[in-house]
Amino acid sequence: MKLKKLVAVIALSAAAMSAQAVVINNGGEANLNEIINGTLLVTGNAVNALGDTATNDASTNGYFRSSEGDSSATFLIEITGNAATQSFGIFNGNDYVQLFAGSDSGAFETSGGYTGTVVDASNRARVGFELSGAGVDVFVDNVLATTFSSDTFGFYLGGGGAPVIYSDATKNVGGAERMVSIQGQGQYLNLGSELDFGCTAMATGNCTLWEDDDYIVAFEDGGDFDFNDLMVYVEDITPVPEPGTLALLGLGLAGLGASRRRQKA
Question: What is the domain extent for residue 255?
Answer without folding.
Answer: 1-19+242-265
